Amino acid sequence: MDHSKIKWIFFDMGHTLLDEDGVHLSRLEAVTEELAEAGKTCPPIEEMLAEMIDFGTKGARSPFYEVSRKYGSKKKYDYCPALEVPFPETEECLRRLSAKYKLGIIANQRGGSAHRLQQHGLMKYFDIVYSSEEMGRSKPAPDLFLSALNAVGCAPEEACMVGDRIDNDIRPAKKLGMMTVRLRQGFFRNRAAESEFDIPDADIESIGDLPAVFGL
Prior knowledge:
Elements: E1 8-11, E2 18-19, H1 21-37, H2 45-57, H3 63-70, E3 85-86, H4 90-98, E4 102-107, H5 113-119, E5 128-131, H6 132-135, H7 142-152, E6 159-163, H8 166-176, E7 179-183, E8 202-204, H9 210-213
Helix pairs in contact: 2-3
C-alpha cells in the first residue's frame, strides 16, 4: 500500500479510538431493568451483546435499538460519554503518528467532542475535530468529509480515513479518493463488503496496529 502522498490521517471516534463497551453494557442493564419491571424477560446481557454484533453484521444503523426493541423496550436510552474509555493502545498510536502526520477527527458525534478528547488526554494530538452535531451534517454524506478536507487545505488523495464502519467510514471516504483503513472492532466488525468501495486499503484488528500500516 502506497502511503507516500498522505499528509493527514482522520479518525472516527467510537470503537476506533474509544472503547464504547461500557456505554452499551449500561444501556442493556437499563433495558433489562425496564423489562423486568414490566414483567418481561430478556436474555443475559452477553447474549444481547452478541445479537448487537449480528445486527451490525447485517447493516443495521443502530444495533442497540434493534436489540432493545426486539425485546419490547419502549424507552430511549441516551448514550453516556462518561462511560467510554480510550483503548489501551490509542494514545501511543496517536503519539507515533502525530510525529509525522497531521491528525483529525471526522465522526458522527454530539457536540463537545473536542472536550471529551481533552478529558481523555488525547486532544493534544489533533489539529481539527469535525463532529456531525456541530457541523450539521452526518456520515456517510460526503459533505462532512469534504468540509474537513477543505478546512485544512488537503486533497482527498492526501488523506486517510480510519474507522470501524464500512458504511460510515470506508465507503464514503474511498468514493472521494481517500486512503482507508478499517478497524475491525465493535458491532460492525464482521460486516462484509458489498462493492469495491467497501474494501479498505488496509484491515487491522487493533488501533495499535495502525502505525505499522504507515511504516512506523
